[in-house]
Design a protein that fits this description.
The protein has five helices and no strands. With about 140 residues, the protein is an all-alpha fold. The longest helix is centred in the first third of the chain and has 41 residues, at about 1-40. The N and C termini lie far apart (about 75 Å).
């Protein structure tokens, strides 16, 4: 009897682990897609877009998977939630600043150098206009 109880516990533990791994794989796919959106919209490298998502997650205390889901909804709706938008903008600007500093010291690629890095980040509108400065940023 003890062997069957022990075996049942091991099977249950393995089933939990498999469920967690499946969830992790699904989350990773969402995060990878969101990284692509951030990279394309904000003109960042994949590494920098990962850093942006991570920073937003840490500064908002929202799980990275949920940040990725918000970013993917942003593509459809053109809007980020009010609690995410300022953290995203700040993370993009911080990342761009660090990228420029690295490029100034011979680090970074030619794609990371250029005037478009100095533009503001507008996340209140659709993703296609996210890198355009707002009137407030121009003033």
């Amino acid at each position: 009897m003890a062997d069957s109880d022990e075996l049942a516990q091991k099977v249950a533990a393995l089933e939990r682990e498999v469920a967690q791994l499946r969830e992790a794989l699904a989350s990773r796919a969402e995060i990878d897609q969101a990284m692509g959106v951030v990279a394309a919209v904000c003109r960042l490298s994949p590494e920098h877009s990962w850093d942006v998502l991570r920073q937003v997650s840490q500064h908002t205390n929202v799980k990275l998977r949920e940040i990725a889901q918000h970013v993917m909804r942003w593509v459809v709706t053109g809007r980020l939630p009010d609690e995410i938008r300022p953290a995203m903008r700040a993370a993009v600007l911080r990342t761009r600043h660090r990228s420029r500093r690295g490029a100034a010291h011979g680090l970074g690629s030619d794609l990371e150098r250029g005037a478009e890095r100095d533009r503001g980040v507008e996340l209140d509108r659709d993703p296609e206009s996210a890198v355009q400065p707002t009137a407030a940023q121009e003033a």
